[in-house]
Design a protein that fits this description.
alpha/beta; Heat Shock Protein 90; Ribosomal Protein S5, domain 2; Rossmann fold; 4 domains; 8-stranded mixed sheet; 20 helices; 38% helix; 19% strand; elongated
Length: 630
C-alpha cells in the first residue's frame, strides 16, 4: 500500500553543513552515489564473514548506465540492500548515516573499508537531478521497496518488484545538468573519483561477458613493496598521471601503526628546471578519491611530486573534501615527510652517482622543502649538493673542506668541564671571541649565469679558485639567504663578481692614482667607483664588482617594484695588464678611447648591455678595425 510522509531533518547535524556548504563541485555527486554502492557491498561481505549472510557466488559490483532518451543516470549495486524501515531511517532522515549505524552494531568485528559517515552522500544526487528514485531489496526476507522524491520536503514509499538483492538509484537529470547524460563525461568522472574503489565498476553494463571494469580494485599502492617490480611502478605512474616520461625514483609508503597509511610518491623529471612545477598528490580514503593536494596531509613542498596517498584514518568532514583539525593529521604529514627524506638520504649514501644524475630534477624540490619545513631541512641538509666550476658535485662541507669525520667530532665532544673552566679563567674577552668566530666564517663563491659570467669564471679558475653554480633565479637567491640565516657563524655567499680577493697578486701596493684619474676623466661617471688592483690573470684589463648585500637588496626591490635602479658598481682596473700599463704614455685622445673600450668590455662580461652601450662598443670596434687596415 502506497504511503506518503515528510522527510525528517536532523537539525543538529544539518546546521554545521549549512554553514560550511556541502560540496564545492557538482560532479562529486557521482562519487558519493557510487561510494554508497561500494559501502553496501562491503557491509554484505562483512555479514558473510560473520556468518549472518550467504555468498551466492555472483560478482560483487556496481553497474552504471546512461539513458539519454529517458534523461536518467542509474547506479545499481548488489550489496546489502534495505528494508522499508531502513529506507525510512537512512534516507528520509537526513544526516542519519547507515554506515554509522552499521559500525556501531558490528564494532567488535571491525568495519574497515566502510566509507560513509554522515548519511548525506545520497542527497548530493539532487544537485543534478529533478527527481530521484530508489529501488532496493534487502538481503533479509523482506519485500522490495520503491522510494521517490523531488528533493523537496515530501516523498513516497511503497512495495515493488525487484530481482535480486541490492539497491538501484535512478537519477532523473535536470535540463540544466544534461551534460551528465554524456557517457564520455560520466566515464571521465568515474576515472577521476572511482579509479581504485574495491569492487568492479561497470559503465553501461550489457552483461554479455565482454564488459571491462573502469577501475582497478587492487592498485599497486595497496600491495607490499616487496611484491612490486620497477616496471609495475612505472606503469602505475603512467596510467595514473598520464606522464609518459619515466619517473626518476619513488617512495612506497606502507604502514599500519600508529595509523594506516599506504601510497606511492614519485619524483618526476622536471620539464623546466628554472621553475617550481606543481605536481599532483591524490588523496584517497579506503580507495575513494577525496581531493588533490590537500595541504593538511600533504606538506606544501611535497606537492611538487606526483603521487597517491590512501589513509583510512584521516578525519573527514561531511563533504569528504576537507579535513577537520586533528593531531593525527599532523602526525601523518610528518611521517610522509620523514619517509621522503629517508629515501633521499639512502639514495645519496648508497648510489651517489644516481643521486647526482637526478640532482638537476630534484634540486628545486629539496631546496623549496628546506625553506618550507625545518624538520625536512635538518634531515637533508648534509646531502644538498652543488655543481662546481669543474662540473663536479659537492656538498657545502666538501666544497670548503671542513668535513669532519666521526672520530674528530667525538674527540671534540670529550672536552672536560675542567678544561672549560680553565679556559673561562683565562678571561678571554667577548670581543675577541666574536672576532675569532668571524674569521671562521667560510665564503662560498657562486655563479648565476655561466655564459654571462664566463670571464669571471676563467679568472677564478686561472687563480686556482672554485665556485658553485646557483643558476635557478627562482629559488637559489632565497635558498642562499636561507642558508646564511641557518648558519650565520659558518657560511656566507658571494657572487663571483662581488670581490676579487682570491685573484690578487701578492706583493707591492696596487694603488695607482694616475690610472684612476685617466679612467675618471675618460668615463665622466661620478657614480662609478674606480680602483686599481694587480690581478693574477694579466690578460683581463678590468672587471666590474658589485657589493653582494647591496646587489641583493636591489634585486629584491626590483621584484617588489621598489628599486630606484642598479646598485653602485666598482670598476677594478688591472694594472698588471699591459694595455692598462701603456695608458700612461698615450695621448689624451687615446687614453679616453681605450679607457671607454675597457669599461665597455668589463660591462659586457658583467651584464647584458643596453642599446646605447652596444652601439658604443660596436662603434669603437669598427674604429679599431679601420685603424688596423690603415
Amino acid at each position: 500500500m502506497k504511503r506518503e510522509g515528510n522527510i525528517k531533518i536532523s537539525s543538529e547535524n544539518m546546521m554545521p553543513i549549512i554553514k560550511k556548504w556541502l560540496y564545492s563541485d557538482k560532479d562529486i555527486f557521482l562519487r558519493e552515489i557510487v561510494a554508497n554502492g561500494i559501502d553496501a557491498i562491503t557491509k554484505y561481505k562483512k555479514l558473510i564473514d560473520l556468518g549472518e549472510a550467504t555468498d551466492d557466488g555472483a560478482e560483487y559490483c556496481v553497474k552504471i548506465s546512461v539513458d539519454k532518451n529517458a534523461k536518467t543516470l542509474t547506479v545499481e549495486d548488489n550489496g546489502i540492500g534495505m528494508t522499508e524501515e531502513e529506507v525510512e531511517n537512512y534516507i528520509t532522515r537526513i544526516a542519519f548515516s547507515g554506515a554509522s549505524d552499521f559500525l556501531a552494531k558490528y564494532e567488535k568485528a571491525g568495519g574497515d573499508g566502510i566509507i560513509g559517515h554522515f548519511g548525506l552522500g545520497f542527497y548530493s544526487a539532487y544537485m543534478v537531478s529533478e527527481n530521484v528514485e530508489i529501488f532496493t531489496k534487502s538481503y533479509k526476507d523482506a519485500p522490495a521497496v520503491h522510494w521517490e522524491s523531488d528533493g523537496n520536503s515530501t516523498y513516497s514509499i511503497e512495495e515493488c518488484e525487484k530481482e535480486g538483492r541490492g539497491t538501484k538509484i535512478v537519477m532523473h537529470i535536470s535540463d540544466e545538468e544534461k551534460e551528465f547524460l554524456d557517457e564520455n563525461i560520466i566515464r571521465t568522472l568515474l576515472k577521476k573519483y572511482c579509479s581504485f574503489m574495491q569492487y568492479n565498476i561497470y559503465l553501461s553494463y550489457k552483461g554479455d561477458g565482454k564488459d571491462k571494469p573502469i577501475n582497478d580494485t587492487t592498485p599497486l599502492y595497496t600491495k607490499n613493496p616487496k611484491d612490486c617490480t620497477d616496471e609495475e611502478y612505472k606503469k602505475f605512474y603512467t596510467d595514473t598521471f598520464m606522464d609518459f616520461n619515466e619517473p626518476l625514483f619513488w617512495v612506497h609508503l606502507n604502514m599500519d601503526y600508529p595509523f594506516r597509511l599506504k601510497g606511492i610518491l614519485y619524483f618526476p623529471k622536471t620539464r623546466n628546471k628554472l621553475e617550481l612545477e606543481r605536481g599532483m598528490v591524490k588523496l584517497y580514503c579506503n580507495q575513494v578519491f577525496i581531493a588533490d593536494n590537500i595541504k593538511e596531509v600533504i606538506p606544501e613542498f611535497l606537492m611538487l611530486l606526483n603521487g597517491v596517498i590512501d589513509c583510512p584514518d584521516i578525519p573527514l568532514n561531511v563533504s569528504r573534501s576537507f579535513l577537520q583539525n586533528d593531531r593525527q593529521v599532523q602526525k601523518i604529514s610528518k611521517h610522509i615527510t620523514k619517509k621522503v627524506a629517508d629515501k633521499l638520504i639512502a639514495l645519496f649514501k648508497n648510489d651517489r652517482a644516481k643521486y647526482e644524475e637526478c640532482w638537476g630534477d630534484i634540486a628545486n624540490f629539496i631546496k623549496f622543502g628546506c625553506i618550507k619545513d625545518n624538520d625536512f631541512y635538518e634531515k637533508v641538509k648534509d646531502i644538498i649538493i652543488y655543481k662546481d666550476l669543474d662540473g663536479k658535485y659537492r656538498s657545502l662541507s666538501e666544497y670548503y673542506g671542513t668535513e669532519e669525520n666521526a672520530a674528530e667530532k667525538s674527540a671534540e665532544g670529550e672536552k672536560t668541564a675542567d678544561a672549560e673552566n680553565k679556559e673561562s679563567a683565562e678571561g678571554e674577552n667577548k670581543e675577541e671571541k666574536k672576532e675569532e668566530k668571524k674569521s671562521e666564517i667560510k665564503t662560498v663563491y657562486y655563479v648565476t649565469d655561466e655564459l654571462q659570467q664566463a670571464q669571471y669564471i676563467k679568472m677564478f679558475k686561472d687563480a686556482g679558485l672554485n665556485a658553485m653554480v646557483c643558476d635557478n633565479s627562482y629559488i637559489d637567491p632565497h635558498f642562499i639567504t636561507f642558508l646564511e640565516y641557518k648558519s650565520p657563524d659558518k657560511v656566507k655567499f658571494a657572487r663571483i663578481d662581488a670581490a676579487v680577493d682570491g685573484a690578487l697578486m701578492e706583493g707591492d701596493s696596487a694603488d695607482d692614482s694616475v690610472i684612476v684619474d685617466i679612467f675618471k676623466e675618460a668615463l665622466g661617471d661620478d657614480k662609478l667607483t674606480i680602483k686599481t688592483e694587480r690581478l693574477k690573470n694579466q690578460s683581463v684589463p678590468a672587471i666590474i664588482n658589485v657589493d653582494e648585500i647591496m646587489r641583493r637588496y636591489s634585486e629584491m626591490g626590483q621584484i617588489y617594484g621598489m628599486s630606484e635602479g642598479d646598485p653602485a658598481r666598482t670598476l677594478v682596473v688591472n694594472i698588471a695588464n699591459p694595455i692598462v700599463a701603456s695608458l700612461k704614455d698615450a695621448d689624451a685622445e687615446k687614453q679616453k678611447f681605450v679607457a671607454n673600450q675597457i669599461y665597455l668590455l668589463a660591462l659586457l662580461s658583467f651584464k647584458k648591455l643596453s642599446n646605447e652601450e652596444q652601439n658604443k662598443l660596436i662603434e669603437n670596434d669598427l674604429k679599431m678595425l679601420s685603424d688596423y687596415i690603415k
